[in-house]
Amino acid sequence: MRILHTADWHLGDRLGRIDRTAEIENGVEQIATYLETEKVDLLLIAGDLFSELARTKTLRNSIRHWQDTFSRFLANKGTILAITGNHDNEVFCQTLQSAMTLAAPISSQGILEPGRLYLSSEPGFIRFCDPRSESTVHFVLMPYPTPSIYSGNLATKKPETLQEKTAQLEQALYAKLEDCITQLPPNKPAILVAHLNVTGLAPGTRAFRMGEDEAIFNLGDFSDRFAYIALGHIHKPICINGHPHIRYSGSIAKLDLGEKDDQKQVVIFDIDDQGLQDSPAVLPLKTRNVILQRWENPTEELALLLQKHPEGLSDLVKIEFVYSAKEDNLDNILQQINQLYPNWYSRDWQERNELRDSLASPIQNQAKGFRETVKEYVATELQNHPHDEREELQRKLDDLLVKAESKS
Ligand SMILES: [Mn+2]
To answer: How confident is the model at residue 404 (pLDDT cuts 50, 70, 90)?
Structure first.
């Protein structure tokens, strides 16, 4: 069976004011092309299909996009197997799963039919028939661990601290994993699909939009049992402890500045009755650049860049600059930014004479209050709206802020 491993699509995600849907869908289309050219049997998505920022309409459009993109793959008996990640909306995914099962009931024999999408938000163990060798391929699925998903294996004692809660969740996941492994037929190759943080990453490697206190799982004792471990959650493509068969495929678009240097990719591998054949192969994905621009002399820098790229650039850019009210024209600068980088996602500036601290890090030292932060955010989001509408919304916002402050 030939399998393509990918993860962390984050459909419907945003970066500042920029909606990333079209770009991420382009990544999905590149994957669909690989499914055909590489004659893949099963597409494996290790969690985080949707962004937590996606609206219902975006979710609907994404599903429609899958229909268009994968209909041929599915009609040719290709299979899509996905698990949920921490960014996926659990209720939405469960509804989708139930609706699919209702439309096409799953056979009770235990070996799942090819030619359809399986999206699992439950940990467990499933089987498919390998269309090449007619043998059975086993998958253990471990979606992102939340107390509701792993409740069957959770200790009954209510946790008193966050550490205790994390420890209980870790134990529940290990117990479930152990339980699935005992159900596997001995000496048959199996694949583990999991959306979580594992040990063996370089210090400071953190999951997308997650804090430092996240649970980290040690797959060490379990990893020998699997021919391949398909991980999702960390957006960088990484092999764990140098093992080519234990890896994060990484996300399919550069979702923020932390991913600016990543070469996005998917992994393809073959598995048969004997286990993994050869070393997994990596195929590149074309992605849009995400960059940071810091200017001390914005007028000059912009003139140079516009001379070089009069048509503008498609990069997603975070811009920070310092200008002088005497020498620079702020309106011109902002206009030229729109011309050069129509896809800027964040911009921040400071008038040179307003600076109190050293010039070296003027922008990072801004400490804004609640009111200022909210107003600034709304002003940025509304900048492309008609003037009247903007003024009216800002007036309403002011009223709301006054009310909120009088209550607190
Ligand atoms: Mn994740």
So the answer is: confident
CA dihedral 352, 357, 359, 361 (to 10 degrees): -110
The model's pLDDT over 149-176, given as tens digits with 9 standing for 90+, comes to 888 887 778 888 888 888 888 999 999 9
Distance CA 237, CA 270 (A): 19
Q: What is the pTM of this model?
A: 0.83
pLDDT at residue 350 tops 90: yes
CB contact at 8 A, 231 and 246: yes
Measured distance CA(138)–CA(108) in Å, rounded: 16
Is the CB of residue 379 less than 8 Å from the CB of residue 394? Answer: yes
Q: Give residue 259 CA to ligand 1 midpoint distance, Å.
A: 14
Separation of alpha carbons 290 and 316, rounded Å: 5
pLDDT per residue as tens digits for the range 284-340: 999 999 999 999 999 999 999 999 999 999 999 999 999 999 999 999 999 999 999
The CATH number given to 2-284 is 3.60.21.10
Please give the distance, rounded to the nearest whole angstrom, from the Cα atom of residue 46 to the centre of ligand 1.
Answer: 9
How far is ligand 1, taken at its centre, from the CA of residue 224, in Å?
A: 24
CA of residue 54 to ligand 1 center, whole Å: 15
| d(CA 98, ligand 1 centre) in Å | 23
Q: Is 199 helix (H, G, I), strand (E, B) or coil?
A: coil
Query: DSSP secondary-structure letter at 340?
Result: H
* 5-20 pLDDT, tens digit each: 999 999 999 999 999 9
Cα 247 to ligand 1 centre (Å): 14
Angle at Cα 240 formed by Cα 235 and Cα 241, nearest 5°? 145
Query: In 309-354, where does DSSP find H-type helix?
Result: 330-340
| Domain ranges (residues) in the chain | 2-284, 290-407
